[in-house]
TrEMBL record:
Gene3D superfamilies: P-loop containing nucleotide triphosphate hydrolases (3.40.50.300), Toll/interleukin-1 receptor homology (TIR) domain (3.40.50.10140)
Matches recorded under PANTHER family: LEUCINE-RICH REPEAT-CONTAINING PROTEIN, TIR DOMAIN-CONTAINING PROTEIN
Keyword list, A-Z: Membrane, Transmembrane, Transmembrane helix
Entry's Gene Ontology molecular function annotations: ADP binding
Keyword Methyltransferase: no
The UniProt record lists the keyword Ribonucleoprotein: no
Organism: Ceratodon purpureus (Fire moss)
Protein name: TIR domain-containing protein
Xref: SMART domains: TIR (SM00255)
Domain of life from the UniProt record: Eukaryota
Segments for region (Disordered): 36-56
Start-end of Basic and acidic residues biased regions: 37-56
All copies of domain TIR, residue ranges: 82-223
Length: 461
């Protein structure tokens, strides 16, 4: 008993020191009047589940308060859709091509402003205002440049003019991506063609005061220095896929993980990606497989989420993080099938049992993918779940990451021991930021004696 107490005492003192340090910081940075209060539950016990933190409302200066009020009005304006980061500008002659491109993007969690979507142009609203508002707020303007775009109706050129003017006002946004659809960049510069376009534009301008031909000429000139996609002889399907890939690279997806509070994630991601590129393809699985191991709480899942974000564009949206131990094996298989192959939701409803695995093997080899299999346990059920994915028969350019608590678990999955790396630790600066994020979320740095206490806490942790 005496031996047990003597061996435990130093750890108890360390824990009390950390708690004391956190309490000291909070009391130093929060005056009594601003320290968080707890509301008691109706029973009066104030249990953790029933208590709500009551944070003091900061006193805003009148101008700042007015600015925030204006921002809230802008954010809640039903006419503005924040999800419409992409604007698909086109002529009606290319409507079918653009509608298919829109559907492709929607399968990858991008929801463009497209005039055939009711959430873009709701019924009963004045569509010119909605179009110009969307043109000013989007981050990427996809312009399907064709002969019809320039001469069929005035609307496509009005949109292009709005993009160019917004780009000057918004410090480079929207980014304009020209898709030269059966009209090359060189043809856009031909003097004879331009004269014909100018003649059409001048005719429209005589009946519409909003059209300033000189502005349209300047707008057209933006295609000169901008790198767009030329339509060659590959056909519309291949051209559409190339366009989709280019758009995904320009616009982050809506469903990425929030990794803003993660420390060291960029460094860890680079370490793992470098390892994936360094190793040879697994003789067992035919693709590059890297294992990462470490005890719980080191951040393996956080790194998987950060890798999901960083690899999304590289793999054309075909990335997936599957966390073992939560959903059933069949639900996890459906998740991987859905996210890596863009499976039609209607088809997914009828999938059961072996059909899921069979369809996964039939489809997953067609494109390169990035898959992170997180949290493999030392149990036959967990290993079998991981093996189902590892043996799916991925495209040869795919990459797979597997995480577990020990290297032995990874080796039992036939992952080469030399392809396994231990989860790296945070460096001193990263650990300090992490400590401050949890102990003092409103303080980014400390000085003097307070800094010394933080360093002691970080050292003991």
């Amino acid at each position: 008993m005496e031996l047990s107490i003597s061996s435990t005492l130093p750890w108890l003192i360390a824990v009390l020191a950390i708690i004391g340090g956190i309490t000291f910081f909070k009391s130093a940075y929060y005056p009594v009047s601003q320290q968080p209060d707890f509301k008691e539950s109706e029973s009066g016990r104030g249990t953790r589940a029933a208590r709500d933190l009551v944070k003091p409302e900061p006193q805003l200066k009148p101008k700042l308060e007015a600015d925030l009020h204006a921002k809230r009005q802008h954010d809640t304006d039903p006419k503005l859709q924040p999800k419409h980061k992409i604007f698909l500008s086109h002529s009606g002659a290319q409507k079918d091509f653009v509608e298919q491109l829109c559907e492709d993007l929607e399968r990858f969690h991008h929801f463009p402003f497209f005039d055939k979507r009711e959430d873009s142009l709701p019924k009963g609203e004045r569509f010119p205002e909605l179009i110009f508002q969307a043109a000013k707020q989007c981050r990427v303007a996809v312009v399907v440049v064709s002969e019809e775009f320039l001469t069929r109706t005035k609307w496509p050129m009005l949109e292009l003019d709005a993009f160019v003017k917004a780009k000057k006002e918004r410090n480079g946004y929207p980014r304009i991506l020209p898709l030269f659809f059966k009209l090359s960049r060189a043809q856009c510069r031909e003097s004879a063609r331009r004269e014909l376009w100018l003649e059409v534009w001048r005719g429209w301008a005589r009946h519409d005061s909003k059209i300033v031909v000189e502005d349209w000429v300047n707008a057209l000139n933006i295609f000169g220095p901008i790198n767009g996609l030329e339509y060659k002889l590959e056909g519309e399907v291949s051209y559409r896929k190339a366009a989709r890939s280019a758009i995904i690279r320009l616009v982050p997806p809506e469903l990425q993980f929030d990794t803003t509070s993660y420390q060291g994630s960029d460094r860890f991601c680079k370490l793992i990606v470098d390892k994936l590129h360094e190793v040879e393809a697994s003789t067992e699985y035919g693709v590059r497989v890297v294992g990462v191991y470490g005890v719980g709480g080191l951040g393996k899942t956080s790194v998987c989420k950060a890798l999901y974000n960083s690899q999304y564009a590289e793999y054309d949206g075909r990335v997936c993080l599957v966390e073992l131990g939560g959903l059933s094996p069949e639900e996890l298989q459906k998740q991987v099938l859905r996210e890596l192959t863009q499976l039609n939701p209607e088809l997914e409803k009828d999938l059961r049992g072996d059909k899921v695995v069979r369809l996964l093997k039939e489809r997953v080899h067609k494109h390169k993918v990035f898959l992170a299999i997180d949290n493999v346990w030392d149990s036959s059920v967990s290993r079998d779940a991981a093996l189902t994915f590892l043996q799916a028969g991925f495209h040869c350019d795919s990459m797979v990451l597997v995480t577990a608590r020990t290297r032995d678990i990874l080796v039992r999955l036939d992952i080469d021991e030399n392809h396994c790396i231990e989860m790296p630790e945070l460096d001193k600066e990263e650990a300090t930021k992490l400590f401050l994020h949890h102990a003092l979320p409103y303080c980014s740095q400390v000085e003097g004696s307070q800094r010394e206490v933080v360093e002691q806490c970080v050292e003991r942790c």
